[in-house]
């Protein structure tokens, strides 16, 4: 028993001394592992910082683009609220003015002419006067619509304004043509009746 105790007393310092390097090596290995992990984490954080910086940069660019887009859109909307010069001074608008003047002239001329036809019935003349008056009223309304299209502050694309003016011109042309045709028909009727009356009178003689 004493020998065993003696052996333990002798060997214990040796065993303890032999374990110290092992413990230091394990600690160093752990520290190395931790350092390696910290290094990896640091690398990851740097990468994340770069990505965040890029993301922030992209967000700022996107914000700037959005702001510019809003400004451009606002300018475009404001521009669409009024007709540009190339619309107000277009051939379409010039044609509207020309057609209006021609209709007024045809109205005045035809009324004077028809009322001087001696071989038309009273109701025929009256019907024409009513028709020609309605034609003038329609012309004024269409011309008013044209002005509204050109001056309205509503958001309308310039090309749409021109299309509306063109549509009005088509209606004005129809009014002018029908007014002239009506006048010509009455003139033919008057001429025919005059010729027939002349033939009757000649036959009597």
Automatic annotation (TrEMBL):
Q: Where is the signal peptide?
A: 1-18
List the keywords (alphabetical): Coiled coil, Signal
Query: Has keyword Signal?
Result: yes
Question: Keyword Coiled coil, does the record have it?
Answer: yes
What does the record list as coiled-coil region(s)? 38-76
Name this polypeptide is given: Conjugal transfer protein TraI
Per the UniProt record, the source organism is Ulvibacterium marinum
């Amino acid at each position: 028993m004493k020998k065993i105790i003696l052996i333990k007393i002798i060997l214990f310092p040796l065993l303890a001394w032999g374990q110290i390097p092992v413990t230091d090596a394990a600690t160093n290995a752990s520290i190395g592992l931790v350092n390696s992990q910290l290094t990896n984490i640091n690398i990851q954080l740097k990468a994340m910082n770069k990505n965040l910086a890029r993301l922030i940069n992209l967000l700022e660019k996107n914000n700037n683009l959005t702001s510019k887009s809003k400004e451009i859109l606002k300018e475009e909307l404001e521009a669409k609220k009024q007709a540009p010069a190339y619309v107000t001074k277009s051939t379409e608008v010039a044609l509207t003015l020309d057609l209006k003047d021609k209709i007024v002239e045809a109205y005045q001329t035809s009324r004077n002419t028809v009322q001087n036809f001696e071989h038309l019935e009273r109701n025929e003349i009256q019907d024409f006067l009513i028709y020609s008056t309605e034609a003038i009223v329609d012309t004024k309304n269409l011309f008013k619509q044209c002005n509204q299209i050109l001056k309205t502050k509503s958001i309308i694309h310039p090309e749409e304004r021109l299309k509306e003016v063109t549509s009005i011109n088509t209606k004005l042309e129809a009014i002018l043509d029908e007014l002239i045709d009506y006048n010509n028909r009455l003139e033919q009727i008057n001429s025919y009746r005059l010729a027939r009356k002349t033939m009757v009178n000649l036959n009597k003689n």
